[in-house]
Amino acid sequence: MFNRRFIVFIILWVVTLGVLWWNWQSSEGDSLYASQSAISASRYTQNLNGSWNQFSSLRQAWTTESEPSEGKYSKFFLTKGRPLVLPSSARFSVVTKRLQIPGEWSSRTMVLTFNGVQGHANVYLNGISSSEKIGEFEGSGGSDELEILPKAFRYGEDNTLLVELTGSAGQRSGLLGSAWPKSGYIKGDIRLDAVVETTIVLPQVKIGWLESTAQITVATDLLHRGFSPEGPWTVYGVISDGSAGLAEQTLVVEPQESPDRQPVTLTFLLPDARRWTTEDPYLYQLHLKVTNSKGDVDDLSLPLGLSAVSFESGNWKLNGQELLISGEALTPQKESRLRNSGEIESWLISKRQEGKNLVYFIGQVPDELWLQTADRVGIGIWAELPVELVPSKRLPQADDFRNLISVKRLHPSLWAWTVGKGLDSSDSAKMYLQQAEQEVEPSLAFALTLSNLRSGLSEEQSILIEGASIKGMWGAVAVETPLTSSVQWDKEQIFAGCWALLMVFLGWMNIRSATWRYKEIGNNKPKRRLRNAWFWNGLFFLARISMVAGLFTSGLFRIPLNVNPWLSHLWPGMQLLQAQSPWLIWAVLVGLFILIRLLQIGVVVPHLPEKPNEAGLIYWLERRYRWAVFIAIAWALIPWGVPFYAPMVGYILLGFLFAPIRAHDIHRIGGRYLPFLWVPGIIVGAVFVWGSFYVSDWVFIWNMFQPLTHSIVQQLHEMIK
């Protein structure tokens, strides 16, 4: 079986794989503007945005970044990294950055903050061993912090920070999801803060009204980062209009036995307060400061808008006034382009002028830059939690998103959340939606559905996706430019037409050639007519295998990931494959299918009379596949109305139809056909084993399409009558 011919094909296939790997196309993405969620005047801060080096693995990154400086290694073009500017919409596996830490930071604890991370992050400092790992977290688009002790840094010399990203929890838990591609992205700012022993945490704000007086409750925590924090602490808060303080409060917090985290609540009364509205997006300033007897200071400043959004009898209300929603949905691709070009504010203003009052973020959490700009412009934001097409068995806990929601709810422009999209109607899904609704309050909670399935929310809060828009009695949100239905294989039809002509020619030459018998396979000195027959049989075999590889490639590039813009971002692995060269994928599939056929015949040969030559047996069997000419013609006729799935379905049906004839040929020569099924059986068995890990996904798909199949069956039944 493993003769020279088989080895040659393996080498050719490996070379083809190498060419595909060498030309592998990753998304370049766009560099993005970003802003910080809160401003501190007292912390030493180092902004880590900007140029990073991108690698495919941790080992490659550390080898390249560390050893050259020690004179042990020179950077080679196969291992060196590529530059990447963060934040970015580009996906990556590993990035590194060199940084130096000032000596005056040596007595302070460091806090490394990542904003807008999507993926599971592992962060290392000056190495990649477990002892040099400073932390990990599951990023879902919010703000994530890692605390680093001062002794971990090298002062006065370069430090290397390494960040590894794998697939996000949403990617892994989604329908038929997996951790591939093992990459993620960072769309927000990255910074390193040197903090004092006690810092003040980003607060939660609740607003109540007594006629025109606003009662503002600010709940925060004092986070003690040392072993012996120095108390007591004085917490001072003030609300101002930008020029003068309008309300202030001071509290003294005494030490406790468990001093790691101490809650603090400040209450402000603001007479004749101005409400934040779309016509008058007025923002106050909230400033919080904590000090101790040693003179340590930590503070936060952030804008504060006073507004209230509610949902009553199917209608939105802003500050008690009914609000008819006219919104526009923003795809991740367009969001990245706007942030890259710095056109966020001008774009939002133009939408306001067009009569839009809301922007819906599809498949992403809006960055602080968007929310801050929307706060100033006076336009609403509708965000999504990353819970989309998730089988009930893998639904996350609603409180997993508590930190993400708490940071975003400080913005008066954030009106609503989609807490689930495309979920089923099981009890666990209903429970999740109800819990998520409580988590996002006071923002509004909605669930988007693909069919009329009941969710755990009210009927008005369960919205059916209809093409490129969602709508209700409250208004509508539409995608401005729906994405194309599929990615096309460029020049596929020219290739298919040429291949059909080739198949017709080879089929005709095979018909004209001599018909040779099984016992002639082992003929060492065949006559010329037999050599001609073998030649044309061999070419037809290669052409048929190449046609099958072409059908698979065509199917891959016709998978309609973008047919629904509300779900177009859910399968990054398929999007990555569709970004590659179809010609290289076709070549790899040709080699793979030939190797599978050689392997199948190699397994069969010992079980046949006289143990025939593998190539001769393949050519002899090929005469039963001459019907493949019609499949090639159907492929070429797709532009003239033949459904794109017809060639593949036709090939499968004809393959089964002619299976008894192929089995009869083997039985007639005294062999058994069962060995021919061993290799295909192993492949099918492997597919079933893979599918067994996704039983809940198949149940989910069945439940999703069952209402559709029921209507189809009814229509067929009526037609038969």
UniProtKB/TrEMBL annotation:
Gene3D superfamilies: Galactose-binding domain-like, Glycosidases, Immunoglobulins. It comes from Desulfosporosinus hippei DSM 8344. Pfam families: Glyco_hydro_2. Keywords: Glycosidase, Hydrolase, Membrane, Transmembrane, Transmembrane helix. SUPFAM superfamilies: (Trans)glycosidases (SSF51445), beta-Galactosidase/glucuronidase domain (SSF49303), Galactose-binding domain-like (SSF49785). The chain crosses the membrane at residues 7-24, 494-513, 534-557, 583-605, 648-664, 676-695. GO terms for biological process: carbohydrate metabolic process. This is Glycosyl hydrolases family 2. Belongs to the glycosyl hydrolase 2 family. Residues 247-302 form the Glycoside hydrolase family 2 immunoglobulin-like beta-sandwich domain. PANTHER family: BETA-GALACTOSIDASE. GO terms for molecular function: hydrolase activity, hydrolyzing O-glycosyl compounds. InterPro entries: Beta-gal/glucu_dom_sf (IPR036156), Galactose-bd-like_sf (IPR008979), GH (IPR017853), GH2_Domain-Containing (IPR051913), Ig-like_fold (IPR013783), Ig-like_GH2 (IPR006102).
